[in-house]
């Protein structure tokens, strides 16, 4: 496996440019100089260390937001697991049999995480070796080193969950090596604990600029790692430092804030009254994620919209101008011209009505034809939002599972309480079609037409099957906006939550469950449920599945779902989950396997011959072909082959 020196060309360019500025004598100009750029000529000052850390921040941006159009960035959030799936049932994460050791998705995170580790290790080593460097203060020096240690710990946290057995590198690589010894997941978690402990002791409490790593982030991840290791008291202690103010002023937002705090309703008339409306504010455009009034954000990944110059987030390289999150989560089937049916008399109709295939009156947009229909409307051929603006569209990736917008909210109402997070305000099930009508009206009309056609020549033509409805789902307001403040033709432009303090409450609740104190676990969960106006839970409700469900209700699309389900799978330290998931191995079953089988997307529109799957007659759906060993990704074959000096065993099942 090759770990070479990773230095940013942009830094080299900046250094060279600085060398050619100012007045120089003829002798100096003619003197031959060496412009070698490596770790011997760089990392010689405090500002150099800061620039080295910038490359680590940049690597996080690339991993989290750089490939949203293709699925790579969604792997950590659990693409294909129990909450959402890709649209291609025969592709990666839809057909798990395709995910092998030669797969590019498999290698993407492995390679990039080790790039991050090497960059962090370079800063750590240079700071430790070069004792003559003068820093603005000893505190600042400790903060810089702790930031690099944090990044290394975060990378190993993800490597442990995705691959399990990986090499632990404590120093930066300067030459090719072919004999890296892999360590098991338990050992990697122990290493993470060391890094997060150090980071939590030395990171700053307050940010100097948006996106900066702070102490609360380290303590949050330390709590999570302690859970994985079975140190439940340590998990409570670390989470409590975040929640009690020791690590700074963080709390769940219960008052309106940010760019649209003055609006009493959304554009559809739904109430945004606090405290529930504060949850809605968390996801609005206009800088809410980094607002100084937002005390819930612990760590926010910065997305640099429509720019190449800063090297920030976005869809990498030429795609940096378009954040595709909105298009990825936006139902588009009924907005396209692919739901036509030919009736027995030869005429063509739209299955869900003309309104679902046409733009609103007077809007041409990107239409199939520039000739309007009899109603003055134009046939739509583009994903279109509910407000008349174009949605930048590069590949529709996400299918939320039925679990997300149906069963998850079965107990959301009780008296005057109704969970805001599952309400029409946050999950718009009755959105407007491009023609201006409500979707549920069009759906009801379509089923009525199908019923009326029974026994006629058009019975089959108007029948609605799973293939017709599989890609029709609610609009999730966590990933889009009902107003685009920068213009309707501009993408949803928001920075990305890596951590909110809401998740810290759920981590501590899990630790209390592990300690047998379900009452305190319920108290922590109820902080979130009370903010959302949801019925409060009791100690009797609490088990690991309830917590996993609550994580979905609160953190859908944000949570690193793969990490969560992996640490709860085949982990002998997770003794507290046996009532829900008693079997924990890589051959017959585990937590991730159980959840995907129960809730995963079945692709009922595909025939059984497309992939080997189990049909559930009771639920009238296919069970995903997720295997117990899929709780880990395979080790990339290139890594195994190039590590010729030491045997690197492949994960079971691959």
From TrEMBL:
PROSITE patterns: PROKAR_LIPOPROTEIN (PS51257). Residues 474-654 form the RagB/SusD domain. Residues 86-218 form the SusD-like N-terminal domain. Keywords: Cell outer membrane, Membrane, Signal. InterPro entries: SusD-like_N, SusD_RagB_dom, TPR-like_helical_dom_sf. Pfam families: SusD-like_3, SusD_RagB. Residues 1-17 form the signal peptide. It comes from the Bacteria. GO terms for cellular component: cell outer membrane. It is found in: Cell outer membrane. Gene3D superfamilies: 1.25.40.390. Belongs to the SusD family. This is RagB/SusD family nutrient uptake outer membrane protein. It comes from Parabacteroides acidifaciens.
């Amino acid at each position: 496996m090759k770990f070479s020196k990773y230095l940013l060309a942009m830094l080299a360019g900046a250094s060279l440019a600085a060398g050619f500025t100012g007045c120089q004598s003829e002798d100096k100009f003619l003197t031959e100089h060496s412009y070698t750029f490596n770790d011997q000529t760089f990392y010689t000052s405090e500002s150099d260390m800061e620039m080295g850390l910038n490359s680590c921040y940049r690597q996080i941006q690339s991993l989290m937001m750089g490939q949203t159009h293709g699925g790579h960035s969604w792997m950590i959030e659990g693409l294909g697991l129990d909450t959402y799936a890709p649209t291609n049932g025969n592709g990666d994460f839809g057909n798990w049999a395709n995910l092998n050791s030669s797969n590019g998705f498999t290698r993407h995170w492995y390679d990039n995480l080790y790039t991050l580790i090497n960059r962090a290790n370079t800063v750590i080593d240079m700071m430790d070796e070069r004792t003559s460097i003068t820093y603005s203060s000893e505190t600042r020096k400790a903060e810089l080193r702790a930031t690099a240690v944090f990044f290394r710990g975060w990378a190993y946290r993800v490597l442990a969950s995705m691959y399990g057995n990986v090499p632990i590198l404590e120093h930066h690589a300067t030459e090719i090596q072919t004999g890296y010894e892999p360590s098991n997941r338990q050992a990697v978690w122990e290493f993470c604990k060391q890094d997060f402990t150090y980071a939590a002791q030395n990171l700053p409490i307050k940010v100097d600029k948006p996106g900066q790593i702070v102490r609360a982030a380290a303590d949050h991840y330390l709590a999570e790692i302690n859970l994985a290791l079975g140190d439940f008291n340590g998990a409570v202690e670390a989470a409590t430092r975040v929640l009690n103010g020791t690590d700074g002023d963080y709390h769940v937002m219960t008052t309106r804030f940010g760019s649209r705090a003055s609006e009493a309703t959304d554009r559809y008339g739904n109430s945004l009254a606090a405290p529930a409306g504060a949850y809605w504010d968390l996801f609005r455009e206009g800088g809410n994620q980094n607002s100084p009034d937002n005390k819930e954000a612990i760590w926010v990944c910065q997305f640099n919209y429509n720019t190449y110059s800063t090297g920030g987030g976005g869809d990498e390289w030429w795609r940096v101008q378009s954040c595709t999150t909105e298009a990825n989560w936006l139902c588009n089937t009924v907005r396209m011209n692919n739901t036509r049916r030919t009736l027995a008399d030869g005429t063509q109709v739209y299955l869900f009505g003309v309104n679902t295939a046409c733009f609103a009156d007077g809007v041409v947009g990107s239409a199939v034809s520039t000739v309007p229909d009899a109603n003055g409307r134009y046939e739509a051929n583009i994903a279109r939002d509910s407000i008349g603006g174009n949605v930048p569209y590069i590949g529709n990736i996400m299918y939320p599972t039925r679990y997300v917008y149906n069963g998850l909210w079965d107990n959301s109402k009780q008296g005057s309480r109704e969970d805001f997070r599952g309400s029409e305000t946050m999950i718009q099930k009755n959105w407007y079609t491009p023609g201006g009508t409500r979707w549920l009206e069009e759906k009801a009309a379509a089923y009525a037409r199908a019923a009326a056609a029974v026994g006629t020549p058009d019975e089959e033509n108007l029948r609605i099957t799973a293939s017709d409805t599989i890609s029709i789902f609610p609009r999730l307001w966590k990933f889009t906006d009902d107003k685009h403040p920068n213009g309707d033709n501009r993408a949803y432009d928001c920075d990305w939550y890596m951590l909110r303090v809401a998740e810290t409450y759920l981590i501590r609740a899990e630790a209390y469950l592990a300690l047998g104190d379900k009452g305190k676990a319920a108290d922590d969960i109820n902080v979130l449920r009370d903010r959302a106006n949801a019925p409060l839970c009791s100690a009797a409700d609490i088990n690991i599945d309830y917590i996993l469900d609550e994580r979905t209700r609160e953190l859908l699309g944000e949570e690193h779902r793969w990490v969560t389900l992996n640490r709860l799978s085949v982990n002998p330290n997770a003794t507290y989950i046996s009532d829900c998931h008693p079997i924990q191995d890589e051959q017959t079953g585990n937590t991730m396997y159980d959840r995907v089988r129960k809730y995963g997307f079945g692709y009922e529109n595909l025939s059984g011959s497309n992939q080997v799957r189990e049909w559930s007659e009771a639920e009238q759906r296919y069970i995903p072909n997720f295997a117990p060993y899929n709780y880990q990704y395979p080790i990339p074959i290139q890594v195994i082959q190039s590590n010729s000096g030491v045997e690197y065993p492949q994960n079971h099942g691959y």
